[in-house]
Structure formats: structure tokens, C-alpha cells
Amino acid sequence: MPPTTEKTRTRGAPQRPGDRIFAAASTGSGVLILVILAGVAAFLVSEAWPAITAPAEDIPGDDSFVVYVWPLLFGTLLSAFFALLIATPLAVAIALFITHYAPRRLAAALGYVIDLLAAVPSIIFGLWGVAELAPRTVEPTRWLEENLGFIPLFEGPASATGRTILTISLVLAVMILPIITSVVREAFLQTPRLHEEASLALGATRWEMIRMAVLPFGRSAIVGGAMLGLGRALGETMAVAILLSPSGNVSFNLISSANPSTIAANIALTFPESSGLTINVLIASGLVLFAVTLLVNMGARAVINRRREFSGAN
Amino acid sequence: MAKRIEVNGLDIYYGNFLAVQGVSMTIQPQSVTALIGPSGCGKSTFLRTLNRMHELVPGARVEGKVVMDDQDLYGADVDPVNVRRQIGMVFQRPNPFPTMSIYDNVVAGVKLNSKRMKKADMDALVERSLRAANLWDEVKDRLSKPGSGLSGGQQQRLCIARAVAVQPEVLLMDEPCSALDPISTMAIEDLMMQLKSEYTIVIVTHNMQQAARVSDTTGFFNLKAVGEPGGLVEVDATDKIFSNPSVQATEDYISGRFG
Ligand SMILES: Nc1ncnc2c1ncn2[C@@H]1O[C@H](COP(=O)(O)OP(=O)(O)OP(=O)(O)O)[C@@H](O)[C@H]1O
Ligand SMILES: [Mg+2]
């Protein structure tokens, strides 16, 4: 095929204007993205610097920046982690149902609904969490406290309002479910028919075929989808801000009313009344969130790359 | 091992479309049966009814009888999964699982059939299957590498190793050499000659010389006319088909005088 050999052959040969324009445009956009990213990072660092170096007594809470940001970071990670823990298996199951079990009509309808759900603004989920879900969790969390209280996660005392890390994790899970599902479903649909047939011809049942051909093929999409979801859960602001009533505790207790807040929600709630160094502190906490998201993404990439040879992409 | 398959009055449908009509033939054990015929006459379709892969296409169904050593493959109480465990298949395009190593590819089917197996037994099985597929020497040092890293011909032999590892009764091959070079093709033909002492082999091929070289029996499929369903025109000993067929259409097709 000529187009692929072109590159090695045409040193010095006249280039077509179309190629030139396209090359310039795509290189330009690539560079632009990098410049914007670098700009954001530079802004965050320069604005955060005063807070990071400031003496402890100037920071809200009269302690160092690390002590200030730690409960927030903990809350962010805890709620996002549990959201992911709930949403990922569910998303994979739904995607499998849509692609391999549901009758074609139902599958199309379900896919459509999932895509619609992905477009619902997060504040709606937040309102639903406060008004509907939170009160409904009160009874079950009491039960958890009584029967599973020996597990630190359910130590209690169970919150009377239901505004707990558990509730927010559930809300976040519902919020990120559609995006994970649609990424994973897309990958499952692309599983080569050839490989599905190979396993069926060996005498695999449908479930065995899924384990042999579909899931391994969709592995990197599952990780990728989960990371997208995690990114959204980590950065989610409004739903958390209206749902949680933070007390700054650091504990794995999911069902009590003594919770840490999250970085994003804290910024949203504190920013309007802030001035001076407090603003720098908030920006510094934003920098921490930025770094965490970056790390998480790099981690996910490493996971995918480690088994690249076996990815089926070659 | 190696069973006889009797097909009787088989009609094959895709939804309402009758693709193949009225096939009756006997496939002898421990021999190679070749199916030849022009494109679109239903060779693949017929082959896939023998291990009940056909019904995986939505709306696809068959009428008629396929009996393997007294077992009606389309009986009401027959689980297609069990049929496929007894009747292995090699596809036109090599399709090793890209997410598995060479080793895991070979044992993929075995792991389905028998849940637990000692590591040593498994190793022995992998070596035996890869030797049977004439691939052992080429891959013995890289069994943990992905199967998709092999050449096309090696991949196809890996697929054959995977199919014979479960020790099926019958091996179906749909144009197994069509994506391969002459040397790999020879390797796979030799392999078929060896394997037929243990298995019943059915192969679809567009390569007349190949059919003549490897098969004991040849069946010629044809379309009566455009828009009509395909069907089996005649089936006979390969020597007879290639020297003195009883139907004119067969003669025309073999000698290249085909429409
Ligand atoms: N999945 C399908 N759905 C509907 N019709 C199909 C399907 N697969 C095949 N057919 C039709 O069935 C008929 C037989 O096709 P088949 O693939 O069995 O031919 P073939 O003899 O194997 O041809 P080739 O030599 O080109 O592989 C053709 O008319 C084809 O269009
Ligand atoms: Mg075919």
C-alpha cells in the first residue's frame, strides 16, 4: 500500500498541500494541549506555593498545610474508591448483559438509556442523593452497625440523617456507572467474532466463552473505563458538597456522621468566603487533587502496558 | 475415537433463506473427506452444521438428520456444547487467542473439559499436541509468549494443536490453508495425513490439488442456479471424482470449465 511506504521514500520530494496543512494542524493541536496543561500546572504551583511554605499559624485550623489537606484527601480517596468498587463490577455485568445476553431490541434500548444517564448533570444525582437515597440508607446502616459492627467500615454509630461516606459513595457509583458501562460495552462489542467462535468451537459454554475471549479482550477497556469513572468521582464537587456534612475526621467508618469532606467539595464550600492566604491554601489542595488524578492515570496506564503483548492489539 | 457421521436429507436455513438443500452423505472415520465447490454454494454452512456452530447465527436452523455413531446430533436432549467438545474445528483465518500465551492456547479447550489437571500432565499434553501439529520445535523455547506473535502458518498449526489437544472424535477444517504460503500448506497437509489415523477429518478447500492430495473421499457442492439453494452434487472416492466423475457438472468444475 503506497500511503505507508510514502514516508520513508519521499525525502526531499514535493509534498502535497493537503498533507502539509493536515500535518501542521494536528501538530499544532498536539502542542496546544501540552501548552495548556503546562500552563494549568504552572498556575497551580505558583499559586499554591505561598500556602505550602506558609507558617502553620496562618493556615486555617492553625496547623501545617499537610494537616489541613490530609483529611480532605482521605475523604476524596475513600469515597471515590468505594464508588469504583461498587460501579466497576456492575458496569461490566451490565455491559455483558447488553452485548451478550439481552435480546437485540432490549439491548439497543438499554444502551440508549445508559448513554442518556451519562449526560445527566451531577447536581441532579446530588439532589437525588440528599432527598431520596440518604433517608433510605438510615435503616440498612443501622442493621450494618448491629450485625457487622466488628468490621471497622461499619463501626458506627450509624448516622441518623444518612449523610454518610457510604451514601456519597453510592451516589458517585451511580454517577460514574454509565460512563464505565459505555466504554466497556463498546470494547465488548468489538471482540472479534473469530475469537468468540474459536472458544465456542472448543466446547465453551457462553459464560466460558466470555471468560476466554470477551473479558481478556476488554481488559484494558475495563481499566480505562474505571479510570475515567475514578477521575469523575475524584473531582465530583456539587453532589458531595450538598450531601456531606463534614467534620474533618479521618476514619474508615463509612456509616457515621463524622466524615471527612473531599477536596473538590471543600473548595466549593469554602472559596466564596475566603481571602488572602486561604485562597492559596485551597489552590494548593487543588494541586494535590491534580497530582493524585495524574498518578492514578499513570498507574492505570502501567497496568495496561504491562500486558500489552497479550492485549490482542497486534 | 474417530467416529462416522451420517447426514440425511439436511436442509440448512438462515432465517427464511434456504442456503443448502437436501444433503445426504456418509463421512467415514479415519479418513479425510474433502468438500469442494464454487464460492457461495454452502460448503462452510454445511460444515458448521456438523458441530452445531451454524445455530449461533441468529435465526439459523436446520431440518434433517445428522447422526454420529448412533447419536443424533440434533436430538432434543443433546447439548450443543457437548457436540462441540467432540467435534473440533479449525477456521479459515488462524484465530489463536491473542490474550493467551502459546501454552495457554493449547490447553484452552482442555481446561474447559476437565477442571483439574496436574502440571506435569498438562506439560506433557502441550508437548504432545504441539508435536502432533508439527509446531513443537519451533515454539518450545517460547511457550509463554503470546500466540499472536507467531507467523500465519504457525498460528494455524497452533489452532490445530489447540483443536487436537481435547482429543475430539472429528476434526472440521474450513479452508485451513487459504491464508498460508505453500510451505506452511505442505506442513498442514502432511499433518492431516498423520492425523487421519486417529481422527475423522472433514476439510473444505478451494484448492483442487489439495483435495486430490489429501482426501480419500470428495464431495462436490454446487448451486443449481443463481438464487437457488446449494446442494451436494455427488460424493465419491477422490480418485473416482478426479478421474471419472458421474455427473457432468463435477467434471466441468474440476477441469476448470465451470460457468
Ligand atoms: N451469516 C449468514 N447469514 C445469512 N446468509 C449467510 C450467512 N453466511 C452465509 N450465508 C449465505 O449462505 C450461502 C452459503 O454460504 P457459505 O459461506 O456456506 O458458502 P461457501 O461455499 O463456504 O463459500 P466460500 O467458498 O466463498 O467460502 C451464501 O448464499 C451466503 O450468502
Ligand atoms: Mg466458506
TrEMBL record, chain A:
GO terms for molecular function: phosphate transmembrane transporter activity. The keyword Transmembrane helix applies. Its main location: membrane. GO terms for cellular component: plasma membrane. The keyword Lipid metabolism does not apply. Keywords: Cell membrane, Membrane, Phosphate transport, Transmembrane, Transmembrane helix, Transport. One of its GO terms (biological process) is phosphate ion transport. Residues 73-300 form the ABC transmembrane type-1 domain. It is a multi-pass membrane protein. It is found in: Cell membrane. NCBIfam families: phosphate_pstC. Part of the binding-protein-dependent transport system for phosphate; probably responsible for the translocation of the substrate across the membrane. This is Phosphate transport system permease protein.
From TrEMBL, chain B:
GO terms for molecular function: ATP binding; ATP hydrolysis activity; phosphate transmembrane transporter activity. Residues 5-248 form the ABC transporter domain. Keywords: ATP-binding, Nucleotide-binding, Translocase, Transport. GO terms for cellular component: membrane. InterPro entries: AAA+_ATPase, ABC_transporter-like_ATP-bd, ABC_transporter-like_CS, P-loop_NTPase, PstB-like. It comes from the Bacteria. It comes from Streptomyces hainanensis. This is Phosphate ABC transporter ATP-binding protein. Gene3D superfamilies: P-loop containing nucleotide triphosphate hydrolases. PANTHER family: ABC TRANSPORTER I FAMILY MEMBER 17. PROSITE patterns: ABC_TRANSPORTER_1, ABC_TRANSPORTER_2. It holds the Pfam family ABC_tran. One of its GO terms (biological process) is phosphate ion transmembrane transport.
